[in-house]
Structure formats: C-alpha cells, structure tokens
Amino acid sequence: MENIRIQEVKERIITDNDAVALRTREDLTKKKVFFVNLMSSPGAGKTTLLAGTIKRLSGTYRIGVLEADVDSDVDARAVYEAGARVIQLHTGGSCHMDADMTVRGLEALDISDLDLVFLENVGNLVCPAEFDTGAHKKVMILSVPEGDDKPLKYPLMFSVSDLLIVNKTDTLPVFDFSFDALSKNLGQVNPTIPMIRLCALDGSGFDKWIDYLETEIAAFKGSKGEQ
Description:
The chain is an alpha/beta fold. The protein has a single domain, classed as P-loop containing nucleotide triphosphate hydrolases (Rossmann fold). It is built from 9 helices and 7 strands; from the N terminus they run H-E-H-E-H-E-H-E-H-E-H-H-E-H-E-H. The protein has helices at residues 9-30, 46-57, 74-82, 99-109, 127-130, 150-153, 155-160, 179-186, 206-225, and strands spanning 34-40, 63-69, 85-90, 116-120, 137-143, 163-167, 195-197. It has a 7-stranded parallel β-sheet, with helices on both faces. The mean pLDDT is 91.
C-alpha cells in the first residue's frame, strides 16, 4: 500500500471550478451583467418564482435565463412566455451546474445586451451548493411543505446562500412548519442570512423579493460607477 498514490480528485475539481467561476464573475462584472443563481429542491417553486420575477422586472431590465435541467424544456417554455430570453441547458444526468457549464450557457445565451441573468439550477439541495457558478448572488428557495428542519439536513446549501426565500406560505395552515424552528436551525449554519417569506403562486410577499433584487442591482451598478 505504501507505493499507491492517492489523488484527491474532488478537491482538484472544486479548485479548478472555483478558478473558472472567479473569471466568469469578473467578466460579468466588467460587462455590467448581474448574475443570480437560484437553487432549491425539486418542486420548491423556482420556475413560478422566476416567471413572476421576470413579469415584474422585464420593463426595467433586459433579462436572460439559463434553464438547467437533466431533461425536458418545460421550465424554459414557462420562462420564455414570461418575457425573458432563455436557453435550455441539459446537464446529461449531472445533478448540478458547474462553472464550465455556465460559461457555455452564457455564450449561447448572448449576454451582450442584457442587464440581469438568472440561472435556474438543477433541483437538488446537495450538489449545486458545492459548485460556484460565477454568480454574484446565490439565492436558495425553501418551500413550506419541505419542513423547517432542512438547514440541519443540508447545511452547506444554507451556509453558502446569500438569501433564503421561504415559498408557498399559503400552505402554512396545512403543514407542521414553524418559522421559529427554522430560525433556530438556521442559527446553527448561517445565523445572518436574510429571509423573505412569500407565495410565488398568488404573489403575496413578492414585493420584498423585488425590493431585494433592485437594491442589489443598484449597489452592483453603483460599484461599477466608482471604478
């Protein structure tokens, strides 16, 4: 066994990915394109949230979407109908988007005339958290039916995210979900993460999400003006 060399493949993959992600983020910053990575489990409401966001912001910003999925173009059609330029990315069975995939997607989307780009990542609370895509902000969506214990089960996802959106608040009377318990669990992995409660289906609480985005975009553009 002493003659067998061990190569930590995953560590090398992550390191290489982070380098590509950093270059991508720097390039997007120079081009003044704000990039948001949306992550969640399947069925948490990413597409409904994204479609509602596009409808509310398309008159102000030129928006593009990278729609990642293992297969199908169902979500891409919904996003396109909402009013955004979209490209469907099939990951070939991969459970996440990495930086190289993102670069290819951005090239195919053509971001030369865009202000804002969303990546709707593959529905998964594990792998997407490990791979930096080059986004300026990582937004995680948790739906009420999933439960308030998810920060303890998937701590990395909650620790790397910049914002937590709790969706499907209209179902609170039906499910055993406590915001107090959620906050307590978040305190163990990311106590400072901001949280927005909303229902993407009926639009309640949506204004807080839009306000968050517009504040972040304004700060992003303002920082460019200082350079």
